[in-house]
Structure formats: structure tokens, C-alpha cells
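Hey, can you fold this one?
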Amino acid sequence: MARLIIVDDEKSIRAALRDILEYEGYEVDEAKDGEEGLDMILKSSYDVALCDIKMPKMDGLELLLKSSQAEKGTQFVMISAFGNVENAVEATKRGAFDFITKPPDLNRLLVTVRNAIERSKLVQETKTLKRRIYKLNEIVGDSEPIRKVKETINRVAATEARVLITGPNGSGKEMVAKQIHEKGNRATMPLVEVNCAAIPGELIESELFGHEKGAFTGAHARRVGKFEQADGGTLFLDEIGDMSLSAQAKVLRALQESKITRVGGDKEIKVNVRVIAATNKDLRQEIANGNFREDLFHRLSVIPIHVPPLAERRSDIPLLADKFLQDIANEYGSPAKDIDPAGMAYLQSLPWTGNVRELRNVVERLVIMCGDIITLDDVKLYA
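Sure. Predicted structure:
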């Protein structure tokens, strides 16, 4: 059952609204002013608040703002006898779902409340999904190298600083990028990923910056590039060490000027993008070899984060293996299996040239091929 709160200093208005809403089957509470309303909203959970604007102690707009800052997720429907455009615009700016004048039209009120409840449900579902995604992207481990990575992520996430993530293939560089995005101020905006190594050199500029119709053979229509798709959010340039020098020059310009130009076009397009880059290469060596621009390197590596290979964090292997056992059980819809101590010790002794990605694949193989308890002999056979 949806929960609503009516915040109004007029007792007769509260009583009339309560009768209507309870008749529709809603659970309804009342507050006689903004301060009491805020206290109740912070202490409880409401889908919708029907809120007067002009009230003593704290007006409805201030209540709306403080509730939004507390991220309660309550949808506000502002109700006021002063039905002017300025009030409606200000309420909308502060995040109100809708604005209704007194005395409210009954049909419109009920439709607005139903829609606000649906919005509240969507907000809660989105938060739940984000928590699940966050858990999927969680960086597992308590070894000293991983603690340093986590500390750096926590420090840099809320800033706009560009980050360069280095480390071998399969070590978890993409996970670090996702954590920075999800913990940052742009978390509600898109995270757009580009694998620079997977795109042919002649197409990388079109992929990043887009192209105009007729810009080259096969360009049958205008295409929006990854920079524009990530506008307001984060662009993750994976394996940037494989990017062509010509594309590097354009990326450098985009970072310097916050503008891009589509291939075959001459119009400058403003973009607001946070760039996170990753590579398994030694970029300083690539600079010495003439394969990477030194000025781009310095633009990208404001905050460097090195993700260590699994062989340098063997104490994390039991934690990672347990997480993978649980994740795989959830995927298969079956009870989680266990690895006995001897089997786990053997896993910790292996070289893991494929790093965390290889460990995950091995654990999945063990889950498929072995019984409920995975033994040392099992691990020796299938790892």
C-alpha cells in the first residue's frame, strides 16, 4: 500500500484530502507545518507528499529542497492557493513532481497522485538496480595493494580529475573505472566504454567523434560518436595505448577545449565528459618508441591508478573465489559450492598469468565439473 503525507497548516484541507485519499485505499499521515513534515519524512518513508507552499516555520519549497537533499525519494505534489507561474516554476526547479492550485480538481488530484506513486516506485527500483550493479562491480580484496586502489578510488571519485588506470590484462581495470563512475557525481549519467584495441585504426575517429553523412565510403547517415553519447557522464577509453596517433591528437584537443568535430564536419560541438583511460602497456616506453603522445599522457594521468596482477595479491584469492562461487550459483539458480582448504591453498599457489579473469573462469569450470565440495584433486584436475 502506498504511503502519503499531507503537509498543510489548514486543518480543514488536511482532513478533506485525507478522506479522499483513504477512500482510494492509501495510507495517509498529516503534518501541520513544514518543520513537522520534514521530521516525519526524514524518520519514515513516504511515496508522495502533498505539500502546501505557504506555511509557518518552514514553507513548502524549503521542505521540498531539504527532502531532496536527504535523498528520501518522496515525490512532492505542491498544492497552493497562489497558483502563479513563478511558484510552479520554482517548485519544478527544486524537483517537485507536479503543482496543483487550491481548491484542487478531484480527478486531476487522483491522477497526479497515481502518477507520482508510479514515479516513486521507479525511483526505488532504480536505486535497487544500482545497488545490485554496484555489488557486481565491487572490487574484492583486502591485500595492501588493493586497499591502496580502493583508497584512491574513494578520494578521486567525487572529483572531475582524469584517471589513467594501468595493469595487466584481466586484472580488473574496467572494474576500477566503473567504481569511479558509480561513486562520482556523474553516476546518474551514462558511462560509455570504448575498447580502442578492438576498433580498426581507420574507424576509431568515427567511433569517438562521430561522422557526417557522406564523410567517407559507407557513411550513409550521420553518426553520433562516443564523446557525444557520454555528454554529462564518463567516457572510458580502454586500451588507449593502441589508439592511432591521429586519433590521439583529436582526443587531446577534445580534452583541452571540451569540443569535438565530427569526421567530415566543420561544426564544433561542446561536450562535458569526464575521461577515464586504461592500458596494459607501459605508456612511457610507448612515448619513447614514438607510438604515444607525451602531451596526451600528461593530460590523462592526472591521477594514476595501478591495478596489481593477481600474483601480487594472493591473499585475496580466497575472497575472490568465494565471491565467484556465489555469483555463479546465482546465475545458475543453484546452491553455492565450497572449495576445501587444501584446494584453496593450491589455487593460491598457481601463477595466474590471466589474473582475476582467469580465476573466474577456473572457478566456473570447477562449479560445472565438480560436486558440492570442490577438493584438492578437483582443483589439480581442472585448474
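The two ends are 51 Å apart (CA to CA). Let me know if you want another pass with a different chain boundary.
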